[in-house]
Amino acid sequence: MANNEDQFKKVVSHAKEYGYIFASSEIYDGLSAVYDYAQNGVELKKNIREYWWRSMVYMHQNIVGIDSAILMHPTTWKASGHVDAFNDPLIDNKDSKKRYRADVLIEDYAEKIYQKAQKEIEKAKVRFGESFDEEQYCATNERVVNYLAENRRILERMGKSLGNEDLADVKALIDELGIADPETGSKNWTEVRQFNLMFGTKLGASAESAMDLYLRPETAQGIFVNFLNVQKSGRMKIPFGIAQTGKAFRNEIVARQFIFRMREFEQMEMQFFVRPGEELKWYEYWKETRLKWHLSLGMGEENYRFHDHEKLAHYANAAADIEFNFPFGFKELEGIHSRTDFDLKAHEKFSGKKLQFFDPELNESYVPYVVETSIGLDRMFLAVLSNSLQDETLEDGSVRTVLKLPAILAPVKAAVLPLVKKDGLPEIAQKIIDELQWDYNVIYDEKDAVGRRYRRQDAAGTPFCITVDHQTIEDNTVTIRYRDTMEQERIKIEEISEKMKETISYKNWLSE
Ligand code: ATP
Q1: What's the CA-to-centroid distance between 378 and ligand 1, angstroms?
Q2: Distance, CA 439 to ligand 1 centroid (Å)?
Q3: Cα torsion at 467, 471, 475, 477 (round to 10°)?
Q4: Which atom of ligand 1 is nearest to the CA of 374?
Q5: Residue 432 is part of a domain; what is its CATH number?
Q6: CATH number for position 109
Q7: CB 46 within 8 A of CB 378
Q8: Are residue 254 and residue 280 in the same domain, yes or no?
Q9: Domain of 280, in residue numbers
Q10: Global confidence as pTM
């Protein structure tokens, strides 16, 4: 995958052209960092959600799902710490009037230094060949040692300053490093300020009785406040998990990366309740399990990496991100956090209700510890879309644009194409659709020459094309064409469904 702006632009325009994503209220020039999912996008999004849900809920006997409301009692957000501490440090450039997140400016700067070290390592790999020992090289090559140390120093200092809410030092660090506005090069910065990310709204009609509410900034709290309801009604025993997918809202300071950072987005979260003292074991388990889930989609092991947090949130005793190689570099895709008993204890305190589990094996009650896995559905969508979009040069020198989506996630699984619009071929194609649509989302297409239809389906990400021609009338066979290899095969109409199942079965994908 090309690691550059052009590739990113291509992804954005392809998403619109092929009915994946539109800007929200586009006829009014859109709304910043808010997007609509189009006819193909809604299917891809649903399929990613389904892939996650099945692996979490159906594949774990001790995990159940819920769907809690977006609006919650406002005290929830007092207890969770969001009212007081859900802030991002923002900084404005006085010349360009552009607003940035101070921590992101610093992280990007540190990443550039890290990439310098990576470049040296890559060069050395080529130079030394088989005998190359990366660990030793990183420990002894002066330049690499310095780059890595500098990267660490910056991130540690930032982590410490943010942890101590020492915003003056965050500003000082930006000045010391000479960080400039990425768009204009200006170094004329304001001070760093905190900005709360929650959207406020009101419940009730009259001004006096209206209650101040927030749109939830994460789905997790809906799980915590229902912890005991689920435990009791489901007779759950620790360890167990509660999963949920749904909308979350954040008034992000900067939102310039398409659906990577949205103001209205969807999360897929799972909170796993464990015995106190066992949380780090489960934290490791979930780190590994979640990475395996990502790898099962076959989007390249080299495109994922863990990033262990220097600065831990107020509720966590261990935290890591799974980062993905987006067209604009490695960025957080999913977070795995050991949240201790912070949330449940806080809700006990603010509600005055006990949120404890009686452990029959230990014969004692306790507030469970929690390990959370939290992934942005839209971010996952972007990862899948940007990784799948490829320009392939064919043998005859022509270029085909193909969206190599993991077949299990593809919006449309097959297009059924009559070779010509006559001789009874459309009717046969329709019959095939009538049968396949019980199991798959399939479409009919009769417009243009068949070669062009293939290309259109390649670009839309459809894994199979099924072509009905004159031979079909004679022997009941069709041509099945595979998107990725462009190979074609003649099979019986009755075999189509089985053939597709070989490629599109949750069992095959999830057990990878
Ligand atoms: P970031 O550092 O990128 O702001 P975060 O650490 O605040 O993310 P979490 O609070 O851990 O994110 O949320 C869990 C997941 O939700 C993230 O890994 C990401 O995939 C997704 N997510 C968070 N904020 C957004 C957003 N504004 N738009 C889209 N997805 C988001």
Answers
A1: 10
A2: 34
A3: -20
A4: 14
A5: 3.40.50.800
A6: 3.30.40.230
A7: no
A8: yes
A9: 1-71+209-390
A10: 0.88
